[in-house]
Amino acid sequence: MVDSIQTKEQEADVLVALKAGKDALARMHETLSLESVMELMDRVEEENELEQQINDVFMGVDLSAVDEAAIEEELAALEQATVQEHTTLAEQLPKAPTTTTTEQPLVFPTVPTKEPSSIATTTTTEPVAVAS
Fold first, then answer.
1. CB-CB neighbours of 93 under 10 Å
2. Is there a smaller number of Cβ atoms within 10 Å at the N or the C end of the chain?
């Protein structure tokens, strides 16, 4: 008798879990439609196919010695062009001074070395014309 009660309780628990799962699926289906899931899967498949095509291109590349030599020559030409461009830019810059600061001493303006004895507080009044 105890076994049958435990079995019935387990069956009730299973039914409660099934109902909770059904309710969760129903809420998911409210936000997701079959069409949107299928569209998403199609887009994922298209992206995977594109990635596979790119990988196939890279995997199929077999550089022969001639191709590699041509690529090395092109790289050297690009490097040379870069060096020439930097040289041209350096030639356009102004020339740096050739004299050092020890040859020409720095001259600073003269500044007062004593504190003023008193601050002048006199004010003068002058007549001012006022327009009316």
1. 7
2. C
